[in-house]
């Protein structure tokens, strides 16, 4: 049994990337809480004419193996009447290595409890969270009294994986010498 565990640990380390960042589900939800709610207004001008205001708040992401669930509360206000409901969807994640941003786009939105109101065409949640895999600052190394080497870290082969309770972003890194 011990040999199997050692083999698994060594196998996983052979295939690991050079640098990685783990973002927990709690951190994502604290980010959403920090952003707060969103609001807007609209008009229905078909069979009936109604102006309304809406607000979305208490957004939450639940990470599950290879996926996610997004949920938020929604209020629609018309003529002083408040309809309370929820919006649910799927959060899709991508990593922009140039800007070092975790991008979150909510898709497949469905609204519940809002009567005939469907805000899917009016609001599409999108968020960007800075995630530095490796800070892009140049690194200066003094080789001797006359020579300094300047290296630029460059990430490549980045991968984003969603697990239950966390997201893992990892990549390989190379250091490219800056020529004067």
Description:
This protein has 180 residues and is mainly beta. It has two helices and ten strands; from the N terminus they run H-E-H-E-E-E-E-E-E-E-E-E. The chain has helices spanning 2-14, 25-35, and strands at 19-24, 38-45, 49-64, 67-78, 81-96, 101-112, 126-130, 139-142, 148-163, 166-177. Strands 2-3-4-5-6-7 form a six-stranded antiparallel β-sheet. It has a four-stranded antiparallel β-sheet with strand order 1-10-9-8. The protein is elongated. The termini are far apart.
SSE layout and pairing:
Elements: H1 2-14, E1 19-24, H2 25-35, E2 38-45, E3 49-64, E4 67-78, E5 81-96, E6 101-112, E7 126-130, E8 139-142, E9 148-163, E10 166-177
Task: State the shape.
Answer: elongated
Biggest sheet statistics:
6 strands, antiparallel
Class computed from helices, strands and strand pairing:
mainly beta
Q: What is the beta-strand fraction?
A: over 45%
**Number of helix segments?**
2
Q: Alpha-carbon distance between the termini? A: 55 Å
Task: Sum this structure up briefly.
By secondary structure, the chain is mainly β. It has two helices and ten strands, in the order αβαβββββββββ.
């Amino acid at each position: 049994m011990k040999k199997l565990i050692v083999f698994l640990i060594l196998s996983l380390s052979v295939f690991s990337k050079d640098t990685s960042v783990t973002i927990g589900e709690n951190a994502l939800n604290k980010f959403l809480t920090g952003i707060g709610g969103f609001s807007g207004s609209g008009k229905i001008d078909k069979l009936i004419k109604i102006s309304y205001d809406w607000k979305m708040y208490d957004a939450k992401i639940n990470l599950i193996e290879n996926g996610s669930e997004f949920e938020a509360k929604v209020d629609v206000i018309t003529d002083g009447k408040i309809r309370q409901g929820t919006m649910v969807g799927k959060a899709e994640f991508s990593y922009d290595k140039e800007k070092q941003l975790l991008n979150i786009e909510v898709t497949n939105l469905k609204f519940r409890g809002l009567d005939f109101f469907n805000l899917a065409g009016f609001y599409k949640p999108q968020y960007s969270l800075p995630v530095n895999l490796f800070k892009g600052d140049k690194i200066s190394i003094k080789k001797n009294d006359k020579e300094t080497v300047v290296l630029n870290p460059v990430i490549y082969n980045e991968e984003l994986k969603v697990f239950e309770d966390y997201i893992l972003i990892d990549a390989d890194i190379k250091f490219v010498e800056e020529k004067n």
